[in-house]
Structures are given as C-alpha cells and as structure tokens.
Amino acid sequence: QFPFGRRLPCDIYWHGVSFHDNNIFSGQVNKFPGMMETVRKITLSRAMRTMQDLFPLEYNFYPRSWILPEELPLFVAEVRVLRASDPSWQPTFIVKPDGGCQGDGIYLVKDPRDGRLAGSGHGRPAVVQEYICKPLLMDKLKFDIRLYVLLKSLEPLEIYIAKDGLSRFCTEPYQEPTLKNLHQVFMHLTNYSLNIHSENFIHSDSVNTGSKRTFSSILCRLSSRGADVKKLWSDIIALVIKTIIALTPELKVYYQSDIPAGKPGPTCFQILGFDILLMKNLKPMLLEVNANPSMRIEHEQELSPGVFGNVPSPVDEEVKVAVIRDTLRLVDPQKKKRKDAQVLNLPWVPSLQQRGWSEPAGGMKDKQHKHHSLKLSLKLKFYLKLGWCPSLERVPEPSESPLGAGPDAVRDAEATLPSLCLKQVFPKYAKQFSHLRLVDRVAKLFIRFLGVKGTTKLGPTGFRTFVRNCKLSNSNFSMAAVDILYIDITRRWNSMGIDHKEPGMCLQAFVEAFFCLAQKKYKSLPLHEQVASLLDFCECHLAALDERRLLWGWG
Ligand code: ADP
C-alpha cells in the first residue's frame, strides 16, 4: 500500500475502486478505465438494448428495460400495446435508480402510470425493468447468484469465469407480486445488505445452508432433483460472454482515451461481479454487472447484545480467496517471462523484484531491514491465505539470495496449488459468438475518426470525414444531410444529461447514426444484416484508402 504516493513502478497495481492513475507506464492494473461508467444501470441497459435490437433472441436474457425520465412515454405506450396483444399479461416492474447499489432506492410498481415514475424526472435517473415474477425457489425462498468473471484482456478479448459463486437468499418466503406484498423487500430483493437486517437471516458456517451459500451447493441440489446442470452452466457462460461483448465497444473508447495506443502504458484486467437470477425453468437472467464486487471474507455479527464485530465468513472465503488467488496466477508477470524464456531457450533467472523483493537503492540499512522482514511476513500470511504453501513458494530470509529458485521449483509450486477455479471461456468459445461482435466493429470506426488522442467524443469534422472516406454520401444523401443527421442525433444524446463534460458525439450516438445509415442503404434486410453489410462496405473502402496511402507514402 502506498498511502503517501508511489515512487517505483510495479508489476501489478491493485486499485481499490476504479482506474485512477494516469502516471502508470508499465505493468498491469486491476481496473479498466471507464468500467464503472460502462456498467452503471442506465449505460448497461442501453448497451443491452442495442444488442437486443440487433439480436433479439440471443439477448433475451436481459429483462425489457426503459430509461427514466426520458423514456417514460415510450414505456407507458409499449406496455399498453403489449397488454392489448395479450390481455392475460399482468406485469410487475422494478424501478432501480441509476448508480444505486445494495438495493438502495429500489421499488416495485404494477401500474406504468404510477406517480412515482413521473416523479423520478425531478429526482435521480433510473431504469424501470420488467420484474421476473417466477424465479426459481429453494426452500420457498428467492435467491440470486453472484458469479465472478475475470476480464483478463480487452484486445484480444480474454474472459474467465469462476467455477463457484455465491447464492444470496431472501429471508421471507416468496409469493408472486401482488399490490399487498410489493413493498416487502425481504421477499423480493435478494441483496445481502438488506436481508442481513432481517431477523430470519441465517449465518451459517456451512457452505450449503443459511442465507448465503455457494453456488455449487445449489447446483448439487438441482442435480439431485434431476435438473440439467450442464445446460445451465453453458447458458450462464453464454450470458457472460454476450454481456461482455455488449460492453467492450464502450470500454475500448475509454481505453484508447486513457491509455493511447503506441504510448507506454499499463495493460488492464478486472474482476467483475455478475448478478444472475434463475427463472423457474432454469433460464438465467442477468440483473446487473458490478465493477467493484465486494471481496470481503468477513461479516458483521452481534457477538453479544449490542456488541458487533467482524467474524470470518467461510462461504465468502471459500469463493473469493480462490478468485483472487487465481487472478494473480493468471496475470503473474513471471509466468509470461518464463514462457518467453522457454521460447527463447534462455536460462530462467528471476530478478529480485520478480521474487517479491524490492531492495532499496544503496543497500539495506538495519531499520529498513526490519521493516522489510515485517513486509515479508505479512506477504507470507497473504500467500498462505491464497493457498501458496511456504515450503514451495518459500519466502527467503533477507540474508539469503532468492536467485536460487529455478523454473522447476516454480513449476512444482504451481503444480501443488489447487487447480484453477477460473476457467477460460473466451477465446475458447469465440467461434460461437463472433457474429455478435458488430458494435465492436462500429466502435473501431468511431475510434479511427476520433482524431485528437484522449477524447471520447466525435466532432462534426470527424463525422464528415468518416462519411467521405467510406463513400457514404451520394446524390440521395448530401453532405448537408450528413450534417443534419450529426446535429440531430448528437443534440438528442447530449440532452439526455449523461455526460456534458465533452462536446460532440458519443459512441452510442454514433452507433445510432450508423444504424440509420445502414437502414437507408440496405432497406429490405433485417437490422443485423444491414449493419454487417454497411460495416463490410466501410471497412473495404478504408482498407483501399490505407493501401493507397501506404503506396504514396503518406504513412
Ligand atoms: P442493486 O445494485 O441495487 O443491488 P440490482 O439490479 O442488483 O440492484 O437489484 C437488486 C435486487 O432486486 C436483485 O438482487 C434482485 O433480487 C432483485 N431484482 C432486480 N431486478 C430484478 C428483476 N428484473 N426481476 C426480479 N428481481 C429483480
């Protein structure tokens, strides 16, 4: 920890909340720039809506959602149409304030004209979402799943999923929503932070009982009831990959702005918390993605009347320690160096720093020596927690040179660690999902025309250049019409009050403009084919342009 600032470069930087240090020029940071913004309720809903417009069936794991206040009239109108087409549909909706967490400010409504919805125009923006009325119950209780996902790299995309997660239970038996029970949070909301205040909350030392259990214990129960657990897992994997595919375009825009290509900078990875609800028919539904999931392995308990203290939580420990241990194993810089050394057939000699030593310049003075030993013993405790056995990954005495351990010792140490709880799912299953990555390609065009490094918004000149270079204007679509399209869409997006800091067209507005152009050009096709065709068209013209520039030596 560097409470007073950091001086030396590190291999891995562990930031508490978000990516916040632009003075890192190497190594790896455990947060992506812009992740917090990208997974906020409204931004996530917009990204999922874009994907639902393109691939409605592939993205039906996210409940129908509308954004308040601006989509209130749309919400009311759409619900009216849906009701007219199916009079037996008796929906309930859940309203979630943007940027809220731990169930904060959430409420259920039956009537789209409920006064509180209109009221949110004056208050915080929110998402109103179809409420999943028939969740899978266990012991008559509603529960959700928290799964940990490691986004190890954005380009190329690398995703890992933890084999086990947490199941968080409600504390009152579930009933389908009625006007009478809508306000009963212990029945409808699974948040741990809410239910812990219920007198029915059960702290348990066992991972398969109580109000918080491991997901594997749920799978065991389901499997014993004859459920197809394999299919459930593959549905969950698909949900995670598709969700990340929906998020990557926005993340890439932030990434190039904070860590410009071609300049020295770190690479990033991040542990995400996916909140998933299982429906009665075992279909997993995404509730939200958490950029900063709690990694606490203790919970607060009343030890004696009025006296509260932190006690270990075996369920949290079982799941979370493995996630952090394996994240560190996967991003271990030594691993990469060992691999490189093997490829080059070099003798593997780790440096002091690689072995966890950072000898102060000018030798180690006595006081520093003591401090150093303390640091090492703390580090040892941490390693033990993570499952690194000291006899294998031995922390050397300060007097002892750590240079002795060779690749075999390290490989042996690795071999005795528990097998990885994080399983790679992408690129492993990339083939099945590559057709979904259309918006990623749109984002690539957007980034190309951004021009000024460090920006996330496209100016009018950039938009004109995009249209001109891709040869999109013609006698039916003049440059004046291009300007009008730019102004119309940009003004509307900027009036939604998301990000006024920078003027210009944000990625989502560009995506809307791109879809508009695609619909104009390829009228009769389904939307995803229109977009794919326009992408091919643009990419082809840009490739030809790049080739010409190369030939003429424009660089
Ligand atoms: P927060 O970030 O405040 O926890 P969530 O989106 O996770 O917000 O919602 C809180 C809880 O509300 C969830 O844990 C879940 O139990 C319940 N919930 C959220 N959305 C839905 C939904 N569409 N259908 C049913 N229950 C939901």
UniProtKB/TrEMBL annotation:
CC annotations in GO? ciliary basal body
Gene3D superfamilies from the entry? ATP-grasp fold, B domain
Q: PROSITE patterns from the xrefs?
A: TTL
GO molecular function list: ATP binding; tubulin binding; tubulin-glutamic acid ligase activity
Keywords of the record, alphabetical order, are: ATP-binding, Ligase, Nucleotide-binding
Family annotation (Pfam families): TTL
Q: Which SUPFAM superfamilies match?
A: Glutathione synthetase ATP-binding domain-like (SSF56059)
In terms of domain of life, where is this protein from?
Answer: Eukaryota
Q: Name one GO biological process term.
A: microtubule cytoskeleton organization
Q: What is this protein called?
A: TTL11 polyglutamylase
